[in-house]
Amino acid sequence: MSTADRTAYSAPAAGLPAILRRTSSEVAYWLLPPLLCFAAFWPGLWVWFQADDFAWLSLPFSVHDWHSLMHALFAPMAQGSIRPLSERAFFLVLESAFGLHALPFRICVFLTQCANVTLLAAVMRRLTGSRAAGFWAAVFWLVNANLVVVMAWSSAYNQVLCAFFFLGAFWFLLRYVQTGKISNYICQWILFLFGFGALEVNLVYPALAAFYTFLLARRHFRATLPLFIPSAIFALADRMAAPAQITGPYALHFDRAVPATFFTYWHWALVSAYVPPGFYGRLEVLLFAVLTIALLGFVAVRAFRRDWLPVFCLAWFAIVLAPFLPVRDHISDYYLTVPTLGLAMLGAYALVRAWRKPLAWRALTVAVVAAYTIPMVRLDRTLTPWWARRSWAVERMVLGVARAHQLHPDKAILLDGVDSALFWGGVFHHPFRLFGAFDVYLTPGSENHIEAHDATGSVSSYVLPAGVALHAAKSDHIVVYRVGYKSLKAITSNYESTILARPNGDEVPRKVDVGNPLMDYLLGPGWYLAEKGFRWMSHAATLKIGGPTSGAERLYIWGSAPFGPQAAVLLKVTVDGMALPETRIPLGQDDFRLSFPLPHEAVGKNQILVGLEVERTFRFGADTRDLGLSFGTFEVR
Amino acid sequence: MAIETTRRQLLISLLPLCTAACRRAEPDLSGYTEEEPPHLLSTVSTADPRAAPQLLSGWYQVEQNAWRWTARNFAAVLRPPPASSTLGAILELRFAVPDVVITVLKSVTLSASIGVLRLAPQTYRQPGRQVYLREVPPNVLSGDSVRVDFSLQKAVPPSQSDKRELGVIVHSLSLETK
To answer: What is the pTM of this model?
Structure first.
């Protein structure tokens, strides 16, 4: 063991027999990083579900047989991703076994992360021959505040599991390089292939393995080349199953934004992404500059001396980050989980090298390590409880709505007092459907208290229009709850009195969801009963909707024609009796979207009457109704 | 082939088995809401067990989990909906006149009263679903509850096959603020 090792990691208990001292030292060596994991992210162990978790938790509802199970496990979902192990199986199995108890999910995340820090220490120990380097690599990675999200949000398990497969495969590659045993090479392959079930970024592992062997074990370089074959096949299959998005936050942009995105990630990796205002003060730039100079300087100096390990560590960061760089409109801190493994290894190697220098160098190193570690730990201990508190607020709201639905199964539920955190962490992801509560809305005006994220979604589509709320209150079809600190408080009577006393509360909404039974009063004759978000019309039907405020506004219609004769059907639309351009709708397609200019005479009217007429109706199967078309929403905007 | 099928079936059964074996009992959610004191309903579905206390007289058992036969006279108590004491309300009775009633009685005339206020009668000569709608002035809706008495001019008298006096089949009744 080197002097550095002894100093950085020592203090065996005096007086114990040597073997016991060695054993206790070894046990402490392997136990300390996992314990640090629990200590840094303790509240993350107790978080409930939030945000995307609810989409995955609803997966079991779609599993009825072998075919649907395969679909749930392997069909592209959520931006076309296919992650059967880290998302589909993770949620399917644990929810099937434990229901909506979050702790088993969290234990799984923490245990995987404990395995990760253990593997990281083992990898670094093998790379450098230094126990201290292994230990500090684990510490530097663990404390990085970009890991808060993955340690506090079950949907980010894909990052933790991906890190496991990366580290596991690489560890077996190192063993193969050092021992030449083919079993290690096979184990590397197995873990690498399983990695495709965790996260798409796994496909860059061959580049990592090839680069390592090229720099540090050239004799084995050729053995890494076959690894590119599964990556190529996966990339091809992934593109075929889920074509790249051209628009939206996940669209790929191979342009000048790539270096800027890289710089942002580099900055976040060293000083964290979401720093509370005033956290660093003016020192943030200085800290970033010092850490950048220290790391890049170390890489340059060692490369000049033909020590290529720092170059490899830096390349780890760049190679693993590369797939995220074209996604310029969705830069996320948790994408740094696997790339920062490289920087943690680089930092740890720099530390143990510096420790061999004179005292002044050591003092400087301690200062730099403290400047990185102390703020990161503080951030961990600030941000993780925030995630936990938000999840608990979501839990109270979701289970409160579940209870309200138990008590009032025939009524729509209105939530009052929902803030931004609750909306984007809960309501937006339809968590109430897990309990069969589909008719849950926010009270009119709630959108004024919720931060808008237009790229993610619209708040207003979750808000019940004031006129509809008024009618629902009059007909006793709603119950209203205020989101409180401890529970949901029923305020139906007070709310109804307030809304009924409000002048001009009866305005006709400019967006009519014909599939919502609360909007029945806006529908004229010709409609059948609502069916979970849509409603069929017969030969002709009418509805009332708020009029346009300017001549530029149009009427937007969303509907579907999922079955019926293949020939197109002619749809005639009128507004207050004035005909709009006729449209042919092909039947047998999932949905259609139409937009029409509105007549000038309609501008400024409180309400207009929209008439719909199809040239012919049809019957389907045992259904005896004469069906025209089915519609979802009508909107004037 | 058979072994393959059996293996598949075994795999498929794993998930529900796991669910059945391991899923804990549904959590007790009673502490997650703070409810208002119980009050009468403004809208009553006659099959809803919570509404049964509001059906005062002239009602028979729930049938097909959806409706109840009435006698010639029947009564219910409803909560005046919010602001109805200033705006008035609409009384709505959703019911069906069965073929057998029209066959025997030829027509059915329904009327209602709230205290001393008599609401206009309506005569139904066709079988099928019907709605009885009447405006109710605000002055009779000032209390916490209002009793509504319905009356049919004629009813099907008890017979060998059915010993009940049969009026109409009611699905729901409600008061809604105007």
So the answer is: 0.80
